[in-house]
């Protein structure tokens, strides 16, 4: 039996997505992608805020019951403005101009999901054990002294907070045995860790999904749930993971080269699948691909859909990754 796949959305390393409308849309898209790719999804519950400046930093995790739904729905939070102060027992410890200010809470995205009737998705408050905290301190110290990791124009407090938040969430995801969502602000440190450790690799490259499947932000939650129950979902997941493994074996000079390579792989896989299901259609499919852009292999999807209509009633087809692929592409057309 296949091992259940698990994905974790932490608050700390997704804060950047909440700082602007385009980031929020990118996060919503990733959430919907993950809901199709993984068996189980965990969202860290509550609200996380942090401020950094040239004189210090401050952060706080607010438990989910401490704020009203209206307060949690608020998305107006300026990334940079004014000053902040840290006060303990009525005494100001320090104040600083704001360098970066973040607030993250998954509640606005997830409020329409019926968690009580969904067993594959949950909201949880997660922390570290005392042993894990000792590991966190050691990892933070190691990264702090790594001179190859730098952030242009960032204060030492922002750099320190990025290090601490990333290592914290990596330890939590490791304890869960889960893949993890990380926003772009953490990319320089992730890349540095990959180079330094040499054995750290992301579990899934979302570029594969972006090329192969439509924009999921156009699908509502009811449609997402319907796709999760599709009999061909397991086959489509397996095909996406197969494509994902293949791109790790190739090197690319640009994102455009990566997209072209994925498109070429997809062209080949579509031909193979249709030929497997209906060998008599092989020549029709090959002829329909002659108009593809040379060197890119982009599929003329409309012709391919027409070519597969005659096999849509076959049980084997309904359970193939091609069936769900076609459904998703048609929704986006």
Structure in words:
The chain has 333 residues and is α/β, with parallel strands linked by helices. The protein folds into two domains: 6-197, no CATH class; 206-332. It is 47% helix and 14% strand. The strands form three sheets. The protein has a four-stranded parallel sheet with strand order 8-2-1-9, covered by helices on one side. It has a three-stranded antiparallel sheet with strand order 4-3-7, covered by helices on one side. Strand 5 (83-88) and strand 6 (91-97) form a beta hairpin. Helix 4 crosses helix 5 (156-176), helix 7 crosses helix 10 (255-277) and helix 9 (233-248) packs across helix 14 (321-332).
Helix content bin? 40-55%
Radius of gyration: 23 Å
Please state the average pLDDT score.
78
Shape descriptor? globular
Name the quaternary structure. single chain
Order of helices and strands: EHEEEHEEEHEHHEHHHHHHHHH
What gap, in angstroms, lies between the N and C termini?
Answer: 36 Å
DSSP summary, beta strand count? 9
Spatial order of the strands in the main sheet? 8-2-1-9
The number of helices is 14
Number of domains: 2
